[in-house]
User: Fold this.
Amino acid sequence: MARSEKHKKSKVKKDSLTRRIVRTLLAVAALYVAVTFLITLNDLVNMISQNKSSRDTELGKARYEELVADGVAEYYSVYTSAEIDSNPDLEVVKLYYFPAENAEKAPFAIVLPGGGYYECDIYKVGLPTAATLNESGYSAFVLGYRYGKYSSEYAPLEDLARALTYILDNAETFNVDASDYALFGFSAGGNLAGLFASETLGYAKYGLPAPTALALAYPWININGDIPLTGNMWQEAVQGVSQLIGNGFLLGNAFPDEDAKASVCVQNHVTANYPPTYIMHGDNDFVVPIENNSYVMKEALDKNGVENVLRIAKGVNHGCGLGIGTDAEGWIGDALKFWKLVSD
Assistant:
């Protein structure tokens, strides 16, 4: 009996120790989930707060309303009525014209808003950027391309090609210099600009001239790159879900094969003929981390001898737009200087 009692007590102690270990592990896991969630929530709140003041959406809205009041069309449809009747999704494709206030033909920019390909943020960054370009003497067009449920395989690229064709065909009417244009791309719009600047998927495929320069803000270069392990499961999840959404709306398949996944990673298209590229990216961006996007792009540009600038905005989050009041402020002016330098 004594030996049996001792065995029972030993087993009870072991069971008790096991339960304590399990409870401790669960408590640690719960603490990790809670702490990383709070960190992510704090970063998200800071990002929203930063972007509310840094984008200056009122500037874009005021300039747009001024132009419409002066007789500029609210927007242009780059597809014909027959094409839209055949494919109603094309109705969301709209081109907004911001003419420069000068008599001479001016170089022009096409502004490509972001939104992860599940939306297209025309008013948040598109219009303010076009208004800022106007202030510097450049004509600008903001493209509302197909996104989300309206999109299909490579549809945004088709929309950009059609928009550029429309602008070049009407260069006299728009009073723009057809030989000199740049693409300003934000986030997913940066991916779109980067892909269009490639010979394989972009301008050459559609028989169009290459951009003189690219200006990319916090660009989503490496859509299907390895997600950096930050130790924050929530931020890693944001990037993982973004990949699924981006592939779904750009490729028409959330789970494409490896070749298709590689095809939408911009760095894979950089050659010695790639257009000169200016990049601005915040080093506090957890949505599109600079480490596996703009750093990767710069490495590809340098390797191929393509002229480029990477401006790292200290402490800046994702989606800052014009960057007013942040370390990114003035980046558009710098990008314009870069564009002029490479076009001379």
The longest helix spans residues 2-54. Strands lie at 94-98, 106-112, 139-144, 176-186, 213-217, 277-282, 308-313.
